[in-house]
Every structure is written in structure tokens, then in C-alpha cells.
What does this fold into?
Amino acid sequence: MHNDDRLVVVKRCDGYETAEVDRAVEELFAALHAEELVGPGKRVAIKPNLLMRRRPDEATTTHPAVVAAVVKALRRRGVTDLLIAESPSGQYTKARLKSIYDGCGMTAMAEELKVALNLDLGVTQTSAPDARMCREFPILDPILQADVVVDVAKLKTHMMTTLSGCVKNLFGCVPGLLKPELHCRFPDQEDFAGMLIDLCDLVRPSLSICDGIVAMEGNGPSGGSPRPLSALIASRSPYAADVAACALIGLPPKQVAMLREAMGRGLCPSSLEELTIEGDPIESLMQPDFQKAANQGTDFLMRVPKVFRGPVKALLTPKPHIRVKDCIGCGRCAESCPQHTIRIVDKKAVIAYSDCIKCYCCHEMCPVKAIDIRRFRLFDL
Ligand code: SF4
Ligand code: SF4
It folds into this structure.
């Protein structure tokens, strides 16, 4: 890890009053020397947590006052090309985005500051070359097109991933209903954590800020309760920011599967002691009695009645599909298939789906791109 990635700045901030939040966020940016990362000519995407349509005081979503302060801090550093982009849960449509921006207080904030809220539904399937668990992700175009991503998370406990902070916030770079698809592909908690780290490594936010002024405790990400924590956290590393967030809420970082995975890859410090903490004394902000979530694991299907799990899984998991007219019968897909479930018949590949484990190796190996990954139409967004 680079030394800059061990630096975390923590500022006390007792409420969402504009002047106080602006001052605290400016101090975070200054301490992290943000001017080295952003400036004139850089296209910047701010990625808040807008999980669903909730009022800011419900502590489910990043507070608009924090996002506004980030916009102002970026503009003070000469950034003019900037927008706010997020894919909430549920379908990724313009109507739903507008409704969530309105309900979360983002529309009013954006109108006041004249900053753009993303309504472009473009998504690009993107390779993750250094991935260990998931080698391709569908990513929102405004995130991909940005020179710099600023991750502005909400600090919450989470029933599936234990913590929702700066690393988990990036799951919203995957559009709408393609998120449950990833839950289905990686039902095991450790595998899901590996996928999240692959995604975080792909998106690589330059700055990560966590809104813990009023955090969510208990059964987050949406069913917990607001809890004043009076803290803003920032780092160049989303992992380091999350380790500091853990310290504030009395959660050992090794209990968080995604941080464990990041530690194993040498991306994340294993404890607070390995961080350089600046700003206000972190000990004065710690609340060890912060309520943790009842961990239910990351297997999305466990929430579906048993009798429906098979069909739901089949619907949510995309399949490889051979475009027969384009197949040249080279057999590379059959050679790469770990299940030996592809045969070449009359110079065309044929898949026996009953044995297919949806690893998509065939899709990656085809030299003429004759294998698509197809999903059920409802999940196109
Ligand atoms: S997705 Fe994997 S298991 Fe299925 S046919 Fe392709 S290579 Fe074989
Ligand atoms: S790798 Fe592509 S072109 Fe070759 S047999 Fe398989 S589908 Fe056809």
C-alpha cells in the first residue's frame, strides 16, 4: 500500500447545517491534498449512496448537504465538468432516478448549485483485468467516462455485508436489477466480497468520503435506525476509510468479509493502528455500543421462499448463447469449458445447458465474439 492510502482524515461535524458541513468537507479535501487529484479539465463523477427514495433524515442515503459540500470543494479546485451518478436498487429508469433524486433531496440541492444529476441510462460491459472473482461488470457510463470518481458513501451497518461504507457504495456503479444477478452468481459471502473488491479495484475512486454525521445502526442498509455519530471520514483509499468507519462504530474490520478480502490482497490495512489518522481525535467520536446488523449472509435467494428459488435463480442468471450464423466452429469454447458441456455439431457450437455453471469462459474465449451473454428481458436495465 502507498503511504497516501494509509492516511484517513476524520472531522467532527454535529449536524447538516450548510456552513458546518462545508467547513468540515473543505478541511478533509485540504488534508488529503485533493488538488493533486482533481482540477481544471478533469471530468469528475460523484457517486453518492441513493439506495432508495428516502428523506435525508432517515439516514438511508448520503445527505445532500454532504454532496453539496463536495461539489463546492471540487469547484474551489477548478473542477467545472462534474455530475452526480448513482444506480439505486430496483429498475434503472429515468422515472425512477428522478423520483429518487427528488425524494432524497438531491434535486433541490442540484438546482441550487447548478450541478448535473445523471439521467443517461448508458451502461457498458467492462473487463476487470486484475479481477480474481468477477472478470466483467456492467458499469454506468458516467462513471466509466469520468477521469475521477469521488465516492461519497453513507455509513451504515448492513445485514448482508456487515458494513456499508465506501467499498460497498461502489456496488451502485452496477445498474439496477443487474445487482441481484451478481448476488445470485456469488451467493457465498466470501465470493461476494471478492466480487466487490474486484469492482472497487475496477472503479478506483480517487477520493472516498463517508457521511457518518447521522449514520444508520441496526438492520441496514434500509431497515435500521438513524444514529448521530457526528463524523465525516475521508481518504484516498476506500478501504482505509472503511477501517476508520469500523473503528467509529466498534466493529472489528476483520468481521467485514470485503475488508478481509482486501486485506488478503494487500489493499487494506488490517487495523486502525496501521493508519495515519489526522483531523479530530478519532477516539472522541467512537461509539462502541453502535448496534450491529443481524447478519443474514449475501445469498439473495435465501429471502425467496424455497419453492421459488430454482426458477428465480434461473431467471436471474444470464446464460451463454451461441449466435449460430457467426460461429466458425473453431472449438475454442469447447476446449475452455470446465464442464465439457459444449460440443461442435456440423461445425457449430452447441451448449447443453443442464451442466452449464455460467462461468462465461466460453464467451471470453470465442475469437469471433459469437457467444453472447443473455439475460431474461425484464432484467435488461
Ligand atoms: S458458461 Fe462456462 S460452463 Fe457454461 S458453457 Fe460456457 S464455459 Fe461451459
Ligand atoms: S469459440 Fe466461438 S466460433 Fe469457436 S466454436 Fe465456439 S462459438 Fe463457435
